[in-house]
Each structure stands twice: as structure tokens, then as C-alpha cells.
Amino acid sequence: MSATTAAPTWTKMRPKQGALSRLFDWKPFLAFVCLLPAVGLLMTFLTYPLGLGVWLAFTDTTIGRSGIFVGLENFIWLADDPIFWNAVFYSVFYTGVATIGKFALGLWLALLLNQHLPMKSLLRAIILLPWIVPTVLSAIAFWWIYDPQFSIISYVFVDVLGWRDTNIDFINTAWPARWSLIAANIWRGIPFVAISLLAGLQTISPSLYEAALLDGASAWQRFRYITFPMLLPILAIVMTFSIIFTFTDFQLVYAITRGGPVNSTHLLATLAFQRGIPGGQLGEGAAIAVSMIPFLVFATLFSYFGLARRKWQQGEGND
Amino acid sequence: MTEAAAMNAPEAKSTNTSSAQPEAMAWDSKSRRFVLLYLPLACFVIILLFPFYWMTVTAFKPNAELYDFAQHNPFWISSPTLDHIRLLLFETAYPKWLMTTMLVSVCSTVLSLFASTLAAYAIQRLRFKGSQYVGLAIYLAYLVPPSILFIPLATMVFQLGLFDTPFALILTYPTFLIPFCTWLLIGYFKSIPFELEECALIDGATRLQILWQITLPLAVPGLISAGIFSFTLSWNEFIYALAFIQSSENKTVPVAILTELVTGDVYQWGALMAGSLLGSLPVAIFYSFFVDYYVSSLTGAVKE
Hints:
The complex is a heterodimer of chains A (about 325) and B (about 300).
Chain A: H1 2-13, H2 19-25, H3 27-57, H4 73-79, H5 82-113, H6 120-127, H7 129-132, H8 135-145, H9 152-160, H10 174-202, H11 206-214, H12 219-247, H13 251-256, H14 268-276, H15 282-290, H16 292-313
Chain B: H1 2-20, H2 30-59, H3 63-66, H4 83-91, H5 94-126, H6 131-142, H7 146-159, H8 166-172, H9 174-190, H10 194-202, H11 207-218, H12 220-236, H13 239-244, H14 253-260, H15 269-289, H16 291-303
Subcellular location (chain A): Cell membrane
Family (chain A): Belongs to the binding-protein-dependent transport system permease family.
Protein name (chain A): Carbohydrate ABC transporter permease
């Protein structure tokens, strides 16, 4: 009896909600309101421009004049353009070599950092520095290091060590310039790879290594059969990111060589910029930018499925 | 065989010593540790830091020393000077560039944090139908690089009348900040026990009260990580700032150094390096205060 009378008084105890506050407590509405700023911004400034970029690639838009649909004309024109094909070649080459270099050295550095070391956190902070500093600013430092006359590397090789008679030519001819840019990219990429892989290494249980040691596994075997497979899932993600952002790199090349000498170091992004913004040919620039998309999709699928596939092979659940 | 036997003799000795202390592994001897660990590590640190050292040295060298390696040791400064810094601060618009960069970075960080906190809360806590697909879509947005977007964005910015204003940057930077922050915060919200929110719900709190009074205070470390990450990313951004800003006084530091200080055929290397150094310092200092948050957000986001 008392229980039934208690129930209504209890509901009255609840603070009365206004219509507005009830509306904000209604889950679908609240979810909609919460998602609105993020989704709205991304739709306006990311999804729409992505579509617009594809559309622009099929028009002859220039700065100050909205173009008309010209079909595949931009792409046909680009297919006959040796500078475009050179940019495609160098983008692939740059991405390939720089990714291999970054991951080889980054993994090595991560393995070194995973040992017992004094001042470990300070060391980690120092190592991340190249990644924190604005790329353009460190690229300017590299530009100065690669200076034809006053390069410090040339100074060391010519005057200190006496191994060479002439200054090293870093960025004034095609192939040295290509390699110099790749070196600068690797320098900038190592910290990110090393710190991410270090985080992966720290999740590997030491008991696995103890068991392997008891079984008499060599250092190489422990790396090959424990470290590497355990690291693969994280490696797949880091590599996907690294490939995408190396392939579409802009800052390093623009700051150090601006695509020169004689257009030999243009990446697709710098070529798109040069044709699109200072050159004013927005349609052609957009076509070059859009031609990056298939490479990106391919690289993402390759690195992600090629490496992440191993995850379920090890019998781990999706987390 | 004889070789193996010869190898075995010192091997046996070392295993004897190591058996005394079972913790130490056979390869953990001092000289070997030096060659395999400290030497490569020192090489890495030297190579990774050398450009910064070189930047600093160049920024404080007088021009006479800068271009004369025969008379002066280039690795050291014999008569340090503040000439380049003075030139930079008083004869160029450098302070103005710094202020613009600061304004743009802070505004776009605040905007992205606001948007991504709400989005992450909705995706992770409200769990409406299809919430994981929205999460996936936002994650995929992070994989769209700015190099593909800058040409269409330039036309949009022009049509909206934002060309050459800081708003062009404040509104476009969130395109790469929001996906990252949302992703980070989803992971962070996941680590906060759901029971706390259920308790608050039973006590009659509205969902917005729960977000404001329970979830957000608990997520402060996550918000700090996302904040510093966004700040550094927007400070370092280059291609949008290069494409959308034309007048000298509205440029951000990275763009201005490259386009305003590099004039003619003779480069003012001292001033360039001083500018790079000063442009790197704010992020470096900011980063040094929050390095642990930074590393955890970087690795946390990768692990997710």
C-alpha cells in the first residue's frame, strides 16, 4: 500500500524539464546537434572541394574565369606532357625510396630505444624534434646545408677529410637533387616512424622473449618470429600514413628546389601547384592533383591489406 | 670444426661469468653494448639534431664569418652577433607574421577542439544507429591530403570572399585537424567508465550536463593532447597558407620566410636561418612542456 503511494511522490521529486532541455535530452536530436559542427565543416571544406576538384579536372577553368566542361582534354594533354610523366616517376620513386629508408632506419632506432637506457624520456623528446619543427623551416636549413658553395658537408669532405677536390653538387643537377630531397625526407620521417614503432614494441610481452630464449632462439630469430609479427598491425597503419603523406608531399620539394633543376624534381603536388596557382591553369592543376588519387587508393589498399591481413592470422580479435 | 672449437673457448668463459648473474644475457657485455647500442644511437641523435645546430650557428654568425670557411672554423662562432635577428625583427614584418600565425593556430585549434569533442562524444557515447560508420567516415577524411584539396579550396575561398584573410586559413585548417582530434578523443572517451555517466543519468542529470560536468573534466588530458597536436599541425601548415594568402602582412611564418625573405639571387642566409630558428622556437617550447602528452597522443592515435 505504502509502496504504491510512494511512487507518484517520487516522480514529482524529479526536477521539471523545460521543452528545450527535453529536446536536448532526446538522443537523436542531441546526436544530430553534436555532429553538426564537425560534419558540417568537413562536408563544406573537405567533401565538397574533393568533388569540386574532380569536376575542375574536366573543365578549362583558369583564375578569374569559370571554365566549361571539356571532357578528358586535360588528361589527354597531360598524357603527352613529359614533365607530367617525370613528376609521376619521381613521385613514385621518392615515395618508394624514402619509405624504405624511413622504415629501415626508424625500426632500427625504435629497437635501440626499446633497450634500457639512461634519460630515456629526454632522448625520446629530442628525437621527435625534427617532426615537430615546421617542415619548411627545417627544409630551409637543408637548403643551406646543400648550398653549392658553402655546404658544410662539402667542407667536411673537401677541407677536413680531403676525400674530394671539388664541392659536392647537391641540388644543381637532376639525380643528385633527387637523392638530396629523399635524404631530407628520410631525416624528417624517421622520428615519427621510430616513436610509433617504439609504442608498438613496448606492448610486446617480455615473456615471449623469455620463452624464446629458453628455447634457444638467436637474436635474429627473436626479431624475425616475435618482434616483427607482433609489430605488423601497427606497422601497417604507420606505413599507410607514411606512404600517403610522402606521395603527396609538397613542402620539402617546394622549399628546397621548387621542382628544379629543369623540372626534374617535381612531385605531382608541386607540379599541380605550379600549374594551378601561379600559372593560373586551375583545370590542369586539378587534373594533376586528381591523378594522385588512384595511386593513393592503391598504396592504401596495398599497405593496409598486405600487412594488416596478418592480424587475424595470428588469431587476434579486432579491437 | 677447429674454428668452432676456438670460438667455443671464450664463449664458455663468458657463459661462466653470466651464470653468476642470470639476469644478464650473453650479449650484454659492455663493449658490445657500446658498439651495438650507444654508437648507433649517438649517430642518430647527431644526424637528427645537426640541422638545428647548423641553423642556430648560422643565425648568430656575422656575414664575414659565414662565407669564409678558410679563416674561421664553420662549426663554431668566433664573434657572435645579433645582427640577423635585429634585421628580422625590425626591418621585416616578422613580428606581424608571428602574430598572424599565432592567431590562425589558436583559432583553428579552438574551433576544431569544439567540433571534435562534440562529435567524439556523439559517436562514442550516444551510440546512435550507424555511429561507427560516421566514425569511419571521419577517419577516412584524415587520409585525404591537402595537396589534393588546395586547388578547389582556392576557388571556393575566392568565391566566398575569404581570399587573403586569416579566415580562409581558420576555416580550412579544421579539415585536417577535426579528423585527427575526433579520432583521438573517441579513444579517450572509450577509456572513461560508462558507469559514471549511468550514475549521473539516474541522478537526473541531462545529457549535456553529463558531458559538461562528468565526461569533459575526466577527458582533460585527452583534450590537452588534441590541443597541442592541433596547434603544432596548424603552425606547421604550409600549402593552404601559400595558396590562399597573397599580401605580405597576412602571411604565416613558414610561408613568409620562404617567399618574403628569399629575394633575388643572393640569399640572406643569416636572416633566413634566424627566421627559421625563431619560427621553430614557439612550437619547440610549447612541445617541450607537453612532450608526454604529445608522445601519448601520437602513439595512442596510432594504436587505435
